[in-house]
Write a structure and sequence with these properties.
The chain is an alpha/beta fold. It has a domain of 203 residues: NAD(P)-binding Rossmann-like Domain (Rossmann fold). Helix content is 42%, strand content 16%. It has 12 helices and 13 strands. The strands form 4 sheets. Strands 3-2-1-4-5-6-11 form a 7-stranded parallel sheet, sandwiched between helices. It has a two-stranded parallel ribbon with strand order 7-10. Strands 8-13 form a two-stranded parallel sheet. Strand 5, helix 5 and strand 6 form a beta-alpha-beta unit. Helix 6 crosses helix 10 and helix 8 packs across helix 10. The termini are far apart. Bound molecules: nicotinamide-adenine-dinucleotide and thymidine-5'-diphosphate. It catalyses: dTDP-alpha-D-glucose = dTDP-4-dehydro-6-deoxy-alpha-D-glucose + H2O. Its cofactor is NAD(+).
Length: 346
């Protein structure tokens, strides 16, 4: 990989799942670079995700909201930031169905504030978007970057709005931006509200696995490491103003994913319970990733390996997730699953 000149990054949402994996990866690959993590530390943002790195002179933390323009501007000016990488977001579809407004506050307005600061201070912005902006994809298609956006959940709609604001700023003001649209990521430090960590930790605890509807929905479960190398590729070699899909280009059904989790953890498949479906559940996501491959990137993991490796990580790192599952997470779990599991079928 080409070496960058020393560069100062503001990584928003760097204490979350993908952000913390990206910070760890980036610091290893670019030891000359300085990284400032800017994070509100919501329930999903955990300082301990980077516990091994806080002693580094090249890493610091600013606790703040991306919607706070003065605080974002100050963090950029104080640290001579030349690149903002925006991971900060509310990220869970089910939470967006229970309480959607914070998704607009952070994902739309927060991204807008970052764009304003980037414009004012002439800073490049790389925005992390998602395959969910394309909406549900019919069986004979893979989304390409020029497809129309057709989001269907409050989460996806807020991400689509952010994605389009970033593109609008590039067109209107000519500010240097790039966007990556990631597939469903799996790997270390993913908050256990998402399917793979939820199913893995439930299986380890011998609790039921709540599969929404028939479980035949399709997702591209990509290893977070490959997302990080994809973002790095775009930061180093991407064309300014362009959008790049990042995934494996291969999907599996949720039932196939559950089988991998249960087989990896050597657990009984009778734990699977089919529960009431998520409203508006997107049936299939699928992306064509040729544009990123053309920059020389390729994924290291196939989706089956990625899911199995993630499940193993939860088995080996109980000290990370046990305190989460016994804390505030319980209240959410009750709200989301108690009734569903009470009426569950096999
Ligand atoms: P996450 O929920 O694990 O982490 C989000 C982080 O953002 C947390 O550290 C949180 O504290 C921080 N944050 C939230 N609101 C904030 C605010 N107002 N100001 C500052 N910080 C705030 O999320 P993730 O799964 O790591 O996702 C990171 C990004 O990648 C998001 O933009 C998400 O939309 C996108 N994405 C995620 C996936 C996936 O599978 N998880 C796939 C594609 C794209
Ligand atoms: P999730 O990890 O929430 O990602 P997304 O909805 O953003 O793709 O869910 C992945 C898939 O797993 C999705 O099809 C919904 C399904 N799912 C369940 O069947 N049960 C669950 O409890 C959860 C959280 C998800």
């Amino acid at each position: 990989m080409t070496r960058l000149h020393p560069i100062n990054l503001l990584v928003t949402g760097g204490c979350g799942f993908i952000g913390s994996n990206f910070v760890r990866y980036w610091m290893r690959q670019h030891p000359e670079s300085k990284v400032v993590v800017y994070d509100k530390l919501t329930y999903a943002g955990r300082k301990e995700n980077l516990a091994d790195l806080w002693d580094s002179p090249n890493l610091s933390l600013v606790v703040g909201d991306i919607g706070d323009m003065d605080a974002v501007r100050r963090a950029c000016q104080d640290n001579a930031i030349d690149l903002i990488v925006n991971f900060a977001a509310e990220t869970h579809v089910d939470q967006s169905i229970l309480g959607p407004l914070v998704f607009t506050d952070t994902n739309v307005r927060g991204t807008h504030v970052l764009l304003e600061v980037a414009r004012e201070l002439s800073i490049r912005l790389h925005h992390i978007s998602t395959d969910e902006v394309y909406g549900h994809i019919r069986d004979d298609h893979q989304s390409v970057e020029t497809d129309e956006l057709a989001p269907r959940s409050p989460y996806a709609a807020s991400k689509a709005a952010a994605d389009q604001l970033v593109q609008a700023y590039a067109i209107t003001y000519g500010i240097p931006v790039t966007i990556t649209r990631g597939a469903n990521n799996v790997g270390p430090y993913q908050y256990p509200e998402k399917a793979v960590p939820l199913f893995s930790t439930n299986a380890i605890l011998n609790e039921p696995i709540p599969v929404y509807g028939d479980g035949l929905q399709m997702r591209d479960y990509a290893h977070v490491h490959d997302h990080c190398t994809g973002i790095e590729t775009v930061l180093l070699r991407g064309i300014i103003g362009e959008v790049y899909n990042v995934g494996t280009g291969r999907e599996m059904t949720n039932l196939e994913m559950v089988d991998i989790v249960l087989d990896t953890l050597d657990k009984d498949h009778a734990l699977v319970k089919h529960v009431t479906d998520r409203p508006g559940h997107d049936r299939r996501y699928s992306m064509n990733v040729d544009k990123l491959r053309a920059l020389g990137w390729q994924p290291q993991y196939d989706p089956k390996q990625a899911v199995a490796e993630a499940a193993r990580w939860y088995a080996e790192n109980r000290t990370w997730w046990e305190p989460i599952r016994s804390g505030e997470f319980r209240e959410y779990y009750e709200k989301q699953y108690a009734e569903r599991l009470a009426g569950a079928g096999q």
